[in-house]
Design goal:
binds ligand TNX, seven-stranded mixed β-sheet, about 550 residues
Length: about 550
């Protein structure tokens, strides 16, 4: 039955593609698109991209993307006065700051020219993604761009996608591809989850055992965490990103206007670090190994102990991190830190007493503020999962709320700014169908439709006059059950596409989105050679 549905959906998809060629289909939906009566623009190998010097890298990026998609190789010409239109081509024109909302752009395509106006890297990069959707994915000798006028800017200032490279690690080339996915969908932030119980993936020269020991686990759980008896593959697994890898990725992201927020998860989820340096734990005499299974919360994952070695360690690793990553926001985790270990440990209890801390929650706050203070000295802002609001953490920290709307409300009332990453529906490690044969996922069910229609600013915050506290949203991709990049692709598409429109466009309609998804995105996934979930029309809609 399912197979039949898939076949008929594919067929329907083709019909829609054929019909939609003549209309303009762009995802995420722009603020304003006007079809002009003028002549469409024809570009061929004699046409050029004219660009101001400061946007040279972006001009080269556009040339490359154009070539990949169409085979047409455009020329490149630097112009002093980008406002002077001299001949046929694409013109990148810098507009003064107040001409656009942040990251906004406009495109006017008619007769012999395409004028792209913006005032920052992201504005131009966003415009290019729109332009690439105005032309077919097809190798040809000349390209026709319809006569249009587009004005566009995002609804939310923070539009992120997260990737856990700990539970499974992915090659540098895939991280770049992932950044390209973000770029295409007009996201602006890549949240890179670099450390956890199952591995340390950030090259750290001040503590080399983090890599020689902490980056490797001896075995990995096979199948689902809840399956009994638990089975393991017995294979050594791991690796880490070298500083050179990270620099390469950061440069790649920079050209595309994507900010990379690194996360070192403390004081819980620290088992890999503890395996490398047991002094960090409340049980330094135990032989800790890098975790080989998932769902460690409150069970086997020891947490950081408050001692001199640990606090020096925190100073050093965050210094190394900020030396490498230019992002203002630095994520320090703070999630699921079991209080169990601190309760059982005499030295920790003595520390709590000595520092006049109320309890273990206050100790967690102590840890967070210790790192936040270091980060502040380096002009960085701390980002943490919502658990860091349990105590009295300084409200200048930015909160990622993976819980429900009520949690968002309580954090907003305390004065925090919030990024919405609710498990329901922005966790892309959940199932996207209820088909029992669907590929293994953690649990739950987050359909593409649920992702699209989720209201990012909860009603309760609007009522409380706190809507401005929500600065955006993010899709989280925890990779316990994503061994390969192909599985990541399958889990994120098309949900990430739906999220991009939810974050960007105020004017939403799921039916209309589905039509554009069929018309322009499916062929794009295929052009990227990316897997995707095909049954998105079957699931959702009250199912
Ligand atoms: C909870 S959400 C975690 C992750 C897991 C995820 C699985 C959060 C901040 N922590 O460590 O991978 O659940 O859905």
């Amino acid at each position: 039955m399912i197979q039949k549905i898939i076949i008929s959906i594919c067929f329907m998809g083709w019909l829609i593609v054929a019909k939609a060629q003549s209309t303009i289909s762009i995802i995420p939906k722009p603020v304003e698109v006007k079809v002009l009566k003028s002549k469409s623009v024809n570009l061929n190998e004699t046409s050029k991209i004219f660009y101001p010097a400061e946007f040279e890298k972006q001009a080269i990026y556009l040339k490359d993307e154009f070539q990949k998609q169409t085979g047409v190789v455009l020329g490149l010409t630097k112009t002093e006065s980008s406002n002077k239109i001299v001949s046929n081509g694409i013109f990148l024109i810098v507009r003064p700051n107040n001409a656009f909302k942040a990251e906004g752009y406009s495109i006017i395509a008619q007769n012999s020219e395409v004028r792209i106006m913006a005032n920052d890297i992201r504005g131009f990069i966003n415009a290019f993604q729109t332009l690439l959707q105005l032309i077919p994915i097809k190798q040809q000798s000349s390209i026709t761009i319809p006569a249009v006028s587009i004005v566009d800017y995002p609804q939310f200032s923070y539009r992120g996608m997260h990737l856990d490279v700990v539970r499974h690690i992915f090659p540098v080339d895939y991280i770049k591809k992932y950044i390209d996915y973000l770029t295409f969908h007009k996201f602006n932030t890549f949240h890179w989850h670099l450390t956890d119980d199952q591995g340390w993936r950030f090259e750290t020269t001040s503590y080399p055992k983090l890599n020689s020991i902490g980056s490797w686990r001896d075995s990995t759980l096979i199948g689902h965490f809840k399956a009994t008896p638990a089975r393991y593959d017995g294979k050594r697994y791991g690796g880490y990103y070298t500083k050179a890898d990270i620099k390469e990725i950061l440069n790649y992201a920079k050209v595309r206007g994507i900010t990379v927020i690194p996360e070192l998860d403390i004081p819980g989820h620290s088992r890999a670090a503890i395996a490398a340096y047991p002094q960090l734990s409340t049980k330094p005499d135990t032989t800790w190994n890098v975790a080989t299974t998932w769902g460690m919360y409150n069970r086997q994952n020891n947490v950081l102990a408050p001692n001199d070695f640990t606090f020096q360690f925190l100073k050093d690793i965050f210094k190394e991190l900020t030396d490498l990553f230019p992002s203002t926001y630095i994520h320090i985790g703070g999630d699921e830190c079991s209080k169990l270990w601190w309760k059982q440990d005499a030295k920790t209890q003595a520390f709590i007493k000595q520092n006049k801390l109320k309890d273990e929650v206050a100790l967690q706050t102590y840890f967070i503020e210790f790192v936040a203070k270091q980060l502040k000295q380096m002009n960085r802002t701390t980002v943490g999962w919502h658990e860091i609001t349990e105590g009295d953490v300084d409200t200048s920290a930015l909160i990622m709320n993976w819980a429900d709307d009520a949690k968002a409300l309580s954090a907003a009332k305390k004065g925090f700014s919030i990024i919405m990453t609710p498990g329901k529906p922005f966790y892309f490690d959940h199932y996207q169908s209820k088909d029992p044969n669907d590929s293994l996922a953690i649990h739950g069910y987050n359909s593409t439709e649920a992702v699209y229609n989720y209201q990012i600013i909860p009603e309760a915050l609007k009522k409380a006059g706190l809507a401005h506290k929500i600065i955006g949203g993010q899709g989280n991709v925890w990779t316990e059950y994503m061994e390969w990049s192909t599985k990541v692709d399958y889990m994120i598409f098309p949900r990430m596409t739906a999220l991009s429109e939810n974050l960007w466009s105020k004017n939403k309609n799921y039916g209309d989105f589905l039509k554009r998804l069929d018309a322009v995105m499916i062929s794009r996934y295929e052009f990227w050679k990316s897997c995707y979930f095909k049954d998105y029309r079957v699931w959702g809609k009250g199912k």
